[in-house]
Design a protein that fits this description.
The complex is a heterodimer of chains A (256) and B (378). Chain A has 9 helices and 10 strands. Chain A has 256 residues and is an alpha/beta fold. In chain A, the strands form 3 sheets. A 5-stranded parallel β-sheet of chain A has the order 5-4-3-10-9. A 3-stranded parallel β-sheet of chain A has the order 6-7-8. A two-stranded antiparallel ribbon of chain A has the order 1-2. The N and C termini of chain A lie far apart (45 Å). Chain B is built from 8 helices and 19 strands. Classes of the chains: A alpha/beta (256), B alpha/beta (378). At the A-B interface, helix 1 of A face helix 4 and strand 13 of B.
């Protein structure tokens, strides 16, 4: 089923998972295991990463062989995001960064101008930049042209669970960019993740839909299946939509 | 068994509670406290006894333990107040969980469904019904859940009462006494190394909260998976016209921090709390206090006028699955009573009674059996 590659690293799972908002660490690690995800994203502003005392999030993820994808959630300016990315690189010894530059607390929509500025600087400084962005084809194309390793448009606002609100834009973005396309934010349930994959996305990044489900581990398993099903359906090629029926059993040669 | 020599590491409510019960049964008990007794998480807590409001559908064992501890609270309060000769301000008004806008109502409904699935006795209220019970609530409150059986206690009074009761029963408390090492010989805990040398014990109880994994001498694989989880809080002074009666909690879809307001008998109104993975950092931040005040003000607009009495940050001893680590360990004579996270005050009675019972009888009760360290060792 074609490789999913980020920064020359090949992954089997096309599901990327967040680490915030679970009932507890134990359920989080169980849910991550059930999701099959190999990449977990962690907010650098939410977790003190210089702490080496026994029990901590990074140790738990590393014990399980996860790739840690630090993110800049909570940064409102390019300057903040660049600083946070550099701290993350130093602390975690990784050049991977999920770049978020948020424009406003209420909607958590990206600030496109600041995002492009930050992406430009971070790419120049040798980071592998995975930007969280609007589902805007032009912005996505610009981010690719700047040298980002992927583009990650939102399906709907962060944590909203509203699904893929503009599938047509996602389709256009798919046509425009060559780098991996990952829907980030908006997935509320399994069918949302399947839809993103059916549209040709290379992966789905989600967090709240699993973390806040009544049963996070079960939802993680559902997401794993949905991403796999959506990917398979995309590769298989869906039939065209038609207004009228075509009988699935042929009418020719029937006994009169 | 009652004449045993017992050493407890940690002088918070858990260590004091166990110590009091054991000393009362005739054991020789010594508590070593690294700093001041009862001044860490025990002091910082809000004292909510809220297994229902805190319930998560994926933590049924913890809910059961919390509910069983709540049932024992009246007996605990009576016994403790009698032994200490002071009140701990145990109050039985319930908790009201409120939402202010449609997204909050959806989230409340999500919580209510989960609570009902767990068979909890909770009640759905309209905004108007909620204001009839608690008149200080904002006109913007549109929906609420009432957990009438969730209670509260003044945890700082409980700290003082436990210190008195423990010492009155003959317990010895050493403050500013760091344990340098737990001594284990051939799989048996034999005592501790202190500043003043080796102290032998028949039983060693680790009740050091978020510092439990920092003590030398334990094998790496038996370190309790406990970490500090920071919470910022503040206290306001209630005034005429703005007297809160019930514990109020918010569920807000638009903010990452939900707040609670806990009214004290002495007129203080405790507002908390942030939940931050910041290691042993206990600094207050502008953002943390801002979120608490915004959340409190939106739910109870009257707090705008109230004087601020105090601000503080504490460290919850968070275990990996939010549940405490109780009972025997693979090391003989070494007992754990730690990792109580955000339920330490609620779980103090059941922890004290059950751990004391374990030490006096040698039997692990069905109540604490699911909470032993071995659940992490599989």
């Amino acid at each position: 089923m074609q490789d999913f590659k980020i920064a020359d690293q090949t992954y089997t799972s096309r599901l990327l998972i967040g680490t915030a908002g679970y009932p507890n660490f134990h359920i989080m690690t169980e849910a991550i295991a059930a999701s099959g995800a190999e990449i977990a994203t962690v907010s650098m502003r939410r977790v003190k990463f210089t702490d080496t005392s026994g029990e901590n999030l990074f140790a738990l993820l590393r014990e399980r062989g996860m790739t840690i994808l630090p993110n800049t959630a909570g940064c409102f300016t390019a300057k903040d995001a660049i600083l946070t990315a550099n701290l993350a690189r130093e602390a975690l010894d990784t050049s991977l960064i999920k770049l978020e530059v948020i424009g406003d607390e209420e909607t958590q929509f990206p600030d496109v101008e600041q995002l492009l500025n930050a992406a430009e600087t971070l790419v120049k400084d040798g980071f592998t930049v995975l930007p969280y962005c609007n589902d805007d084809p032009i912005t996505c194309k610009k981010l690719e042209d700047l040298g980002c390793a992927a583009v990650m448009p939102l399906g709907a606002p962060i944590g909203s669970g509203m699904g893929i609100r503009n599938p047509y834009n996602i389709q256009i973005i798919r046509d425009l960019v060559q780098v991996p396309l990952i829907v980030d934010a908006g997935v509320g349930t399994a069918s949302d993740a399947a839809i993103a994959m059916e549209l040709g996305c290379d992966g789905v990044l989600l967090n709240t839909a699993v973390a806040k489900a009544h049963r996070p581990v079960l939802m993680a398993e559902a997401m794993k299946k949905a991403v796999e099903a959506g990917r398979a359906a995309f590769l298989a090629g869906r039939i065209p939509r038609k207004l009228y029926a075509t009988a699935s059993s042929p009418q020719d040669g029937m006994i009169e | 068994m009652a004449n045993k020599k017992i050493i407890i590491i940690g002088g918070g409510v858990i260590g004091l509670g166990i110590g009091w019960q054991l000393a009362k049964a005739g054991a020789t008990v010594t508590i070593y406290e690294r700093s001041q007794s009862g001044r860490a998480a025990s002091w910082a807590a809000a004292g909510m006894l809220a297994p229902l409001a805190e319930a998560h559908s994926e933590e049924p064992e913890l809910l059961k333990l919390g509910s069983q501890s709540l049932v024992r609270y009246p007996q605990w309060a009576d016994e403790l107040e009698a032994d200490a000769g002071m009140s701990i301000a145990y109050r039985v008004e319930g908790t009201i969980i409120v939402g202010l806008e449609p997204d909050d109502t959806d989230q409340l409904r999500h919580l209510y469904t989960a609570q009902q699935d767990l068979g909890l006795s909770v009640e759905w209220l309209t905004g108007r019904e909620a204001r009839e019970i608690e008149s200080v609530l904002s006109p913007r409150v549109t929906a609420a859940i009432r957990c009438a059986t969730d209670h509260q206690v003044d945890n700082r009074l409980m700290v003082k009462a436990l210190q008195r009761a423990y010492q009155a029963c003959g317990g010895v408390l050493y403050e500013n006494s760091t344990i340098e090492k737990i001594v284990i010989e051939n799989g048996v805990a034999t005592g501790v190394q202190t500043q003043d040398g080796f102290q032998a014990a028949d039983v060693l109880i680790l009740a050091a909260g978020c510092w439990s994994a920092q003590i030398e001498g334990l094998p790496d694989n038996l370190l309790p998976p406990v970490r500090p989880v920071k919470g910022q809080m503040l206290a306001l002074q209630m005034e005429a016209g703005i007297i809160v009666k019930n514990v109020i909690r918010t569920v807000r879809a638009r903010y990452s921090t939900s707040v609670y307001l806990v009214p004290r008998t002495d007129g203080r109104l405790i507002v908390g709390a942030t939940t931050e993975e910041m290691g042993f950092d206990t600094r207050l931040t502008a953002g943390g206090i801002f979120e608490l005040l915004r959340g409190a003000w939106e739910a109870v607009p009257g707090v705008y006028e109230l004087p601020i009495l105090e601000t503080w940050a504490g460290l919850r001893p968070g275990s990996r699955d939010n549940a405490p680590i109780l009972g025997k360990t693979p090391v003989e004579n070494l007992i754990y009573a730690t990792g109580h996270y955000r339920n330490g005050i609620l779980l103090t009675p059941i922890t004290a009674y059950e751990i004391a019972n374990l030490i006096l009888t040698g039997e692990t009760s069905d109540i604490i059996a699911p909470f032993q360290l071995d659940r992490f060792l599989r």
